Amino acid sequence: MKDAEAAVSTVGLTRDFGSFRAVDGVNLDIPRGAIFGFLGPNGSGKTTTIRMLCGLLRPSSGSGRVVGCDIAREGEAIRRRIGYMSQKFSLYDDLTVAENLTFYAGMYGLANAKRRERVDAMIALADLRGRERTLTGALAGGVRQRLALACAIVHEPEMIFLDEPTSGVDPAARRRFWETIADLADGGATIMASTHFMDEAEHCTSLGLMYAGKMLISGSPDALKRELTVAAGKIWQARVPDSIGFLDRIRAFVSGGILDAYIFGASVRVLACGARLPADVAGAAAWEEREPTLEDVFVHHVRSSAGMEGQRCDA
Amino acid sequence: MRRLRALIVKEFIQMRRDPLTLAMLMLIPIVQLILFGFAINTDVKHLPTVVFDQSMGQESREFIQSLSATQYFDIRGYAASYDAIRRAIERGDGVVGIVFGPDFARRLARRDGAAIQVIVDASDPMSASSAIAAAEMIGLRKSAAVVAEATGTGMSPVYDVRLRPWYNRDFRTPYYMVPGILGVILTMTMMMITSMAIVRERERGTLEQLLVTPMRPWELMVGKIAPYLGVGYAQLTIGLLVGRAVFRIPMRGSLALLYLLTLLFIFSTLMWGILISTVSKTQMQAMILSIFGFLPSILLSGFMFPRMGMPTVFRYLSMALPLTWFQIITRGILLKGVGLESLALPVIALCVLIAVFLGVSLFKFHRTLD
Ligand SMILES: Nc1ncnc2c1ncn2[C@@H]1O[C@H](COP(=O)(O)OP(=O)(O)O)[C@@H](O)[C@H]1O
Ligand SMILES: [Mg+2]
After folding, report:
1. pTM to 2 decimal places
2. Cys-Cys crosslink for A82: which of A159, A214, A300, B68, Cβ 3.0 to 4.6 Å?
3. Are residues B179 and B141 in the same domain?
4. Range of the domain at B287
5. DSSP class of A293
């Protein structure tokens, strides 16, 4: 049965631009109802992956299914059932709020009564009541993003792709945006949202980390954190005066008792092998044990994939 | 159908939000028609003329009078030497120089080839040929009169050539220029507008959002074209009104037929623009491509130069231009008053062009961003 299938699943999804491999063998498996956070620095291939899933780019190799349909052959069926909010703002500046919504409702073939009902609901969702006749070009950044989301979901899609929906949006508005996304997931939709803000990862039920075209790790936030402590050891943090010089000294121990060391705010964090720090490191500062954050998880994986630090404990 | 309606409504709203462009589209036919209608005149009169009269007699004065009576020559002055004539033409004070030899009157009395030299500035062939034709005419007429008088046979010539210029008896340039300019204006505005249409959405990123909807490419194209069919008809109407009011162009055939067939022309030109828009990556490219299509339309369509005189290659090339067929249609209906039965070829040709433009556009339109 198609509906029992995952919302998105891909096998070896790859995209080349000329000789440059922007997306490299990505395997995805997003269950229905999930909020999948697609993390990664700029240029890591998030947009390219999402575009392939929406049928906007053809994969160079690999395959994928979205809402139970093949992305290479069933684009038409997929388009009816997904919503997509592109990274670049792409509504019509010279149409009003209501006109943009009505236009997209029409493009998805909603009948008159249904269209009015949905446009009205979307104006409420985007909190634009009373500004229906404002030209879209005159809206502020955060408001525009809400309207873009509303236009992308006016036809009640079961799968929603959001490409950096919160870029250029202030923190308070970002929080509200994620609340809206949680509501949509509660309503049964599956969401895949890309971001390069690590803190937004906490809003997601599962995460994938892209780096240089590859999916480094994926899983639920808790599982990822647990995995880090099980595979490696504990996280220790200390406040030191000259953190950069200190880090250089500490790094000598990488592979010799610690797995990774990096600056974390005003402090230095180390990922130890096992439960204890090597004696020399332990004596160098006043360490406190900390719970791993997602940032720890990502920094560790990105650095080890880039070959910047030793990757295993030779215990 | 709901999608198509949504697209058309959106285009109309956007058109309304840009009243300046719309106003300009309406003004262009008025301004251009008046400018070109008055400025372009292939029958050049009142050519500034300088005379070097060495005979200084009654006879040469009389000849000069006959010349200026034709209105082709405006006598601007008398030169004292050959050199003075050359200088006048070089400065641009004169376009024509007329020289009578010292023995003009004597030779005329002997009927011995009294020479009149007509020097023309042929760097502008159009005014030169007007001057030549008028001067030759006067020469022939005056010779015939002298011969007739001498032989006492009266004025009836041996060969009696009677000219009957049909459809435009007085060779009035605006009669064929005005419908021509109308076609040129429509070609320019219609093609330019739609050539920007799709590529603009591509550049602004709005096409990406459209492509994830279930929209079909032909719906997008028809949506872009529909509002401008209206604009094209408005331009046609304004142009015909100006042509009628200012230039008194005749309307001998059925206006209903003209409006019906213009639909094919406007549609094909809009579709041509759409084709440019689908193959262009940027608005700049689209602009250059449409100029690339516009220039041959002016030069090869028969608007400026008769197609009969063109080398075969260009004549075939001109058949791919909608304007070529529109010229035939407008001249046919307005000046000759012909009906549909005489216009089968242009109608078929325009239909073929529409099908080709549409087919290639759909083939070239990609559902993806690559
Ligand atoms: N159309 C394209 N042509 C060539 N290179 C591209 C194109 N689109 C993206 N890229 C390259 O692919 C890489 C991944 O881009 P993208 O998917 O946009 O990353 P992200 O969304 O994670 O920032 C980048 O290095 C980018 O320069
Ligand atoms: Mg991106």
Report:
1. 0.84
2. A159
3. no
4. 172-369
5. P
